[in-house]
Amino acid sequence: MTDARIIGGAGRESSGLITMLPAAIESMFRLSWRALRESWGLILALAILVLIFSQASPYFLNTLVLERILTNASFTLIMATGMTLVIATGGIDVSIGATLALSSMVAATLMNLGTPVLPAAMAGLLLGAGIGAFNGSIISYLKLQPFIATLAMLSLARGMTLIISGGSPAFDLPEAFTSAFKDEMVMVIGLGGLLLTMLVMHRTRLGIQIRGIGGNENTCYICGVRVNALRIGVYAFQGIMAVLAGYTLTASFDAAEPTAGLSTEWLEAMAAPIIGGNTMAGGRARLFGTLMGCLILATMRSGLNISGVPTAWQQVAIGGIIVGAVTLDVLTNRKKVS
Amino acid sequence: MNSQNKAFGFIQDHHLQLLPVILLVAVAMTILSESFMTSQNMINLANRVSINLIIASGMTLLITSEGIDLSVGSTVGLSAVGAAIYFQNGWDASFGPYGAIVFGVAVGAAIGLVNGILVALIGLPAFIATLGTMLAVRGLVFITSSGRTIMGFDPRFIEVFSGFTFGIPRAVIVAGLTALVAAYVLNKTTTGRLLQGLGGNERCLYTAGIRVKRLKLGSYVMMGMLAGLAGLTLAASMSAAEPFAGSWYELDAIAVVVMGGTALTGGRGTVMGTVLGAILLGLVANSIILLGISAYYQTFVVGLMILAAIVMGSPVLTGARAN
Amino acid sequence: MKNILTASKICKQYAGTRALKEVDFEIGEGEILGLIGENGAGKSTLMRILCGIEQPTSGDIVMHGKPVEFSGPQAAQAEGIAMIPQEVLLVDELTVVENIFLGHEESGAFGLSKRQMLADTRAILAELDSQQVDPEHLTGNLPKGSQQMVAIARRVMQGGDVFVMDEPTASLTGEETQSLFKLLKKLKGEGKASVFISHRLEEMLEICDRIVVLRDGEHVGNFINDDTLTKDKLVAAMVGSAVANEFARTVSHVGELMLETDKVVISTFQGRKTHPISIQAHAGEVVGITGLAGVGKTELAHVLSGLRPVVEGELRLRGRSITLRSPVDALKNKIGLVSEDRRAEGLVLELTALANMTLTSLKKLSRLGRIEKDRERQLGLDMKDKLNMRTEYLGRDANHLSGGNQQKVVIIRQLCSEAEVLLLDEPTKGIDIGAKAEVYRLIGDLVAEQKAAILFSSEPQEVLGVCDKLYVLTSYGFLGPYAKGALDYAGLMALEFGTATSDTPMEAAE
């Protein structure tokens, strides 16, 4: 008797393919328009960066450099897509770098032990999903702060990687594996993951509910959203994305490194969504912004490289960008933070 | 907190829960390894524990006030390199060898001030702000050291931190004093009371008219200074400043604070617990090496210990209210 | 007319007090029922029981002819109870349409049926005359009234047989209220029932078919709304016979003028500006500020303690103009606030009672930064004697004290820091009768020491009994001061509900 709907019961449109198509196209245009409206500042920033670097160095505007930027941006994007959802729920995951290293190492070790490529790669992905699900579970059920829970996981996974690898990289990976994750495949995975995630976030209820959790968990609970299950799913998804990123890194080095993902990679994956206009307080999932964040970071890095800025200064710059982006976030969303 | 007046009221029994574990590990190691109870091993152990404890004492106060600082490891590095550069540039000719101590601590204070401004004045989440400074400061370490290990410390400077007084390593004395002062501040002073209040209910302190921002700012500066001091101790114990010095120290410090029983949700902290946590962590790391187990297990074990500590301290399991 | 819901002999017992005494209550199909009573009369408790948020101590509920037991809000919802709580529960970061369908999203073969949901949202908003609300706007950016309309729309969209609305009109404008009434009438036409709580009697008379009056947890009146029913009759029923003045205290000598507001305008949580407020609080005087929910009492307390800015007008302390930028300034000027929400704002629950008492007077109790624990303890012991508090409570964590003792601790903090002007915001909310009496005695002792106390309270009996001088905040104006005895209970209610014009003598209590 509760579902007695009062309004809008009649005149329901049929959901046939013919009638859906224009609707889908229309909604695509609307989405692109919204993304542009939300992110024009980022596009402008990117354009200015490109302008500055092309003035600073004659070698900047060059297909090789651009390809490098796009590949680097795609690599960050793989993880940043998952992180965008985690941040949308109001959480954070600092363990992605360690998850990436562990799963890659496990998959590579399995391959070296003679396991066929597909099962070995699947095992790594499962492990990543499991780590994520574990993070999500202790955050949900034990009410731990996401940051500290994933920090413990960071330490665990890093230790496990060192134990399994004995501190040395795993070489000689099967061609079938490396070629599936190398070169242009990085872009395919990055963009594919992004588009798929966009589709889920815009076309299914999950999108609304994930943002809802970050906005007001209590209201979602009252409205019948399965808050804990959804959050666990989001962290598991983040785990899988971290593993995919790890595979591309492994393929490009032709080896699984025990220290992979431990320098600034995971920090950039956290910074990109924030630069892209997502807020630490949760409730927002601007995936196009995240893409722009990745492009800006990759452009910065390549540009600084070409302009002869030492790596150490680049690190200072990226630290500064993270703090700057979060400062901007806090100052523009002050109402929510207090 | 118990306000009964005891001579050592700030050393409280329920913070001693790690003591049996420590004794157990120590006894087991004495039996299992001949090299455990040697003076050389004890000195190594003491040095390791001391440097961690200097940072962790400050971190206890910070976490009690619901703050956190991830940049301490990088600060350790910059302070060590800073002291090395002090001698390299011959500044000791004008300011004396002990000026390096002031310089290293000042470097730490400056980083702490930046963190404090970001967290207290601008209002950034502490972990993300200090993550940013962690990265930036590590970059500065590489820039100032040109990525190389620097040596050439004045022996008088080294003597301050690595000599012996009454047969006790100086590093232990420095760390012990730091922990004592931290315990005193936390349990006996106005500042300590307000830090507990800040971690328990910041809104209450604010409405009551306490200068919350100043208090927070001060706590980050204090943390930076202690990380600077730890950096000097490290540099002196190795007679060198490496660009990677202090990496991951923040994790060790947070681990021992949590293991000691300080609540991550703020309001309750125990320096005594942190001391025991630091000893236990040092013991475990030392045991792994002595037993011939790969050093790689160390990181894993630290992770397990943090996980166990935070799970046991979870608001769901302890019945405390979540902040 | 068939009854949808019948509740009989509902009792609710809290520790020590009875909130509801054998209340009988029924709602018929297509009926709009009003529920009134002053604060603490038990209407919220009754609503919470109907919605399954609380369980009755005894009594039965029959719905659609079969007995039901609501173990929780979900169970009540499943039986067709639709609750619209006073607090608007929306996700600010989601759009209007996303909020309305949250947890009940509609999907087709190609994912979300966005157009369908959009059309349905437009339809229901049109139903509520809120076409101006863009369904694709973030709810967080909407005015409070529109947010309330969206929350109502969501509940109606999800359906139900009995709609329970707790003060739905508090944040609505006049037109929005009319639109809500239109919707209620439409629901009525479909045979659905509504229970409507409001302080605004004229609204009750306009929309309700029947009005039930509660007083002290008892069902004291049941009025069919015909032409003969008036506001005065309702107020009379709410007030009942003469009320004993149980909180009477001796009046102290009135000293110099302490805190004064000169035509101060503030903004309420709903974003409305109040009428200019001019109050004067003298040493040795308890000044009462009262009014219905949502008129700005707490906001005024916040303005006087530096938590909210003054929009217009001037604050003066001892005749000197002051600006309070933050609570730090208030503390410097010896103005202390006892917050309404002691757990969220008043106390550090992890600290002991003693540490909470001395939180703002540590400077006085310490030397070179070291707290002299003997002196702190002595101060605590002195204070505890004033309070009838057991010595062992001083060392206990604030979290483990009863509500009454917690409140005493917060008030004592102001005594310790020697505040000269005390702002007490609903100081007796949620504490038992014995603790209440002690809080009143404490306030009496305070003013006897030539301090000024300003009591912000929505309990008429409390302000009438305790205060030397009373101001009334209403939606139609700022009234007062009324000297003690100038107003009786019925008179105050008449002012609050706007049934009397302010022709009562405006004696200043100089």
Describe this structure in words.
The complex is a heterotrimer of chains A (338), B (323) and C (510). By secondary structure, chain A is mainly α. Helices cover 76% and strands 0% of the residues of chain A. Chain A has 14 helices and no strands. In chain A, helix 7 (184-203) packs across helix 8 (205-215). The relative contact order of chain A is 0.17. Chain B is mainly α and 323 residues long. A two-stranded antiparallel sheet of chain B has the order 1-2. In chain B, helix 2 (39-64) packs across helix 9 (190-200), helix 9 (190-200) crosses helix 11 and helix 12 crosses helix 13 (271-290). Chain B is globular, with a radius of gyration of 19 Å. With 510 residues, chain C is of the alpha/beta class. A six-stranded mixed beta sheet of chain C has the order 6-9-10-3-11-12, sandwiched between helices. The longest helix of chain C has 16 residues, at 174-189. Chain C is globular. Classes of the chains: A mainly alpha (338), B mainly alpha (323), C alpha/beta (510). At the A-B interface, helix 5 and helix 13 of A face helix 6, helix 12, helix 14 and helix 15 of B.
Shape of chain A: globular
Helix content class of chain B: over 70%
Mean pLDDT of chain B: 88
Cross-sheet strand order for the largest sheet of chain B: 1-2
Number of helices of chain A: 14
Portion of residues in beta strands of chain A equals: under 5%
Structural class of chain A: mainly alpha
Mean pLDDT of chain A: 85
Portion in helices of chain A: over 70%
Number of contiguous helices of chain B = 15
Number of strands of chain A: 0
Largest sheet of chain B, described in full? 2 strands, antiparallel
Alpha carbon gap, first and last residue of chain B: 18 Å
User: Which segments of chain B are poorly predicted (pLDDT under 50) over 5 or more consecutive residues?
Assistant: 1-13
Largest interface: A-B, 49 and 47 residues
Largest sheet of chain A, in brief, is:
none
Question: Roughly how many Å is the radius of gyration of chain B?
Answer: 19 Å
Q: What multimeric state do the chains show?
A: heterotrimer
Unreliable spans of chain A: 1-15
